[in-house]
Each structure stands twice: as C-alpha cells, then as structure tokens.
Design brief:
The protein is an all-alpha fold. It has helices spanning 2-14, 21-29, 41-55, 58-64, 67-81, 84-88, 93-107, 111-115, 119-133, 145-159, 162-165, 171-182, 185-188, 194-208, 211-215, 220-234, 246-260, 272-318.
Length: 321
C-alpha cells in the first residue's frame, strides 16, 4: 500500500513537469519566436531557455535573455554540449559552477573541480571524484572539515579501508567508518541512536553482503533495503523472496534480472505491470550491450582501415615496395 501511495504521488508530481503546448512546439521546432505567444513573462523566458538548450545555441540566450536568465541559459547549453568555453563566459559564479558541474558528472574530469569558485559546488565536485575514482586524495582538496570527513567516511566504508577511515577527524564518524570497514556488527550496536545503529548495520549488509547484519536492524523498511542490497550485491535472486517490504523485494528481482540479463528472474516480482517493466529494462540492457559491441566493432574496423592505408602509403611512398 505504501508503494501504491508513493507511486500516486510521483504520477501527480510528474504532471507539473510537462511543458505547455506552446513551449513544447517551440522546443520541437527549435524556434524561439514561438515563445512570444506566451503571455506570462517568466514562462516566456523559460521557453527561450528551453529552446536554446534543445538547439544547443547560445545565440538564443544572447538575443532573448539578459542578466541571471542569460547566465542560466548559458549554463544549460554549456552543460548539454559539454563545452567548457561556454561555461567560462558566464558571469554569475553559481551558474558558471553549475555548468562545470554538469560537464564533470558526464566526463569525470577532475580538473573542472579546480575551476569552480563556490564552496558547495567545488566540495561536491571533489567528493564525486573521490567516490567515482575511488581515490581518497580528492577528499584532501575539500576545505570544510565536515564535508571532508563525510568524503573519507563514504569512501572508507565502500572500500572497506580503515586507513581511509583514520583520516576522519570526528571521532564518532571515524568509529562508525571502522565498524563498517571491518564488518563489525557489535561496534554498530554500540552507537547511540537506533537510527545510527540501523544505518551502520545496513552498510555492513550492503558492502559485506552480510545477511546477519540485516537481521539485526530494527526498522522493517531499512531491514528490507539491507536485504535487497545484499542480494543484489551477490546477484542472488533466491534471497529476494524473503524480503517483506514489496518495493524492496520488487527492486531486488529487477536489479538482479537486469544485471544477469535474465527476464525469467522478473517473474518473481508477481505484479504483472512491474514484471513487464522489468522485462523492458532487461531488454534495454541487452540492446545497450549489443549497441556497444557494434560500436566497438565499427571503431575497430575504422582503425584497421586507417592502419591499412598508412601501411600502404609507407610501402608505396617511403619504402618503395
């Protein structure tokens, strides 16, 4: 029932995300002049910005927008096109950093962190890089002690590395990091609040695939989530059926089905609507694999043709063969 209620809220909220017909037409045709049919100024500006992003054209930003809106428009276009040069033209610090942030999340380019000037974006950038590259050296670049500690803690727990945990200055966070890194459930149970104990045990279940840690969790929703993460981590769909909370049980079957590219695992979900969605996601994953393989073959073929031409040129013109 909780899952159905959640789904209903999502459906209602998603209606707010749909563009009005005029903006939709302007985006489809990539024609900012259509936006002028909107009577509300803020909606018109939003339309201009959306068209510029769709067209990947900053000239629309220049012609139709000014000040903060223009900077925001540049940020959208720069992020979509992954063009740092566009970001550099943005005057507002936050919008410029937002532009860099969007590119960084697509390219994993750590050098972009150094270009950011606002603390929030810069610290988030280094945290993302530390987590993505599994390298605690990026945590050192974070000025805020609290954020730096969170960076070390998250990485120490994921890597199960007590040396990373030792860099944490806050004693409570450091001890929790040690507990998770070592898979020490008894240390988790010594934490002050039930929430902290449950979260600590959840991480042990997630990173060590330890079912016994999940069993000690008091919160039923957290326990179900822990069991899901443990089962998915091991790619063991036989563990999904015992999960009490339906949403976590469904995600367990779906996650493993996609990972194994096996639609038969989807049948464990039960609800036919979600079973079909699971089938579709497995199909999408298989198609993505096929496309990646085709792309790899195509690139290999192009490289071979290029190498053959170079070899022929050398033979004909340099070696005289």
């Amino acid at each position: 029932m909780r899952w159905l209620a959640f789904l209903s809220i999502v459906v209602l909220m998603s209606g707010c995300l749909f563009e009005d017909p005029i903006t939709t037409e302007a985006i489809q045709k990539k024609d900012p002049e259509i936006c002028k049919d909107l009577k509300d100024e803020s909606e018109e500006q939003h339309c201009f910005q959306s068209v510029a992003e769709a067209a990947e054209d900053t000239r629309i930003c220049d012609k139709y927008l000014t000040g903060q809106k223009k900077d925001s428009c540049y940020s959208d276009v720069g992020g979509k096109t992954q063009d740092e040069g566009i970001c550099e033209k943005i005057k507002d610090d936050n919008e410029r950093d937002r532009c860099y942030d969007t590119i960084m999340r697509s390219t994993n380019d750590a050098e972009l962190c150094g270009k950011m000037t606002t603390g929030g974006y810069k610290e988030t950038c280094y945290s993302v890089m530390a987590n993505t590259k599994k390298d605690p050296e990026y945590c050192k670049e974070i000025d805020s002690q609290t954020t730096r500690d969170r960076c070390y803690q998250g990485l120490g727990e994921v890597l199960k590395d007590t040396h990373v945990c030792s860099e944490i200055t806050d004693s409570k966070s450091r001890e929790q990091c040690y507990a998770v890194a070592l898979g020490d459930t008894s240390a988790c149970e010594k934490l002050t609040s039930q929430y902290e104990r449950d979260e600590c045990l959840l991480k042990i279940g997630q990173f060590h695939y330890e079912d016994k840690a999940c069993d000690k969790i008091k919160s039923e929703s957290t326990k179900s989530n822990c069991q899901r993460l443990s089962a998915v981590g091991r790619n063991d769909s036989s563990k999904c059926s015992s999960i009490k909370e339906y949403y976590s049980r469904m995600l367990c079957f779906e996650g493993i089905a996609v990972s194994k590219r096996d639609v038969n695992i989807c049948d464990g979900i039960g609800n036919q609507t979600y079973v079909r969605e699971c089938y579709e996601k497995v199909g999408d994953a298989i198609r993505a694999d096929k496309q990646a393989e085709e792309d790899k073959t195509l690139v290999g073929g192009i490289k071979k043709q290029a190498n053959d031409k170079i070899s022929k040129f050398v033979a004909d013109n340099i070696l005289g063969i």
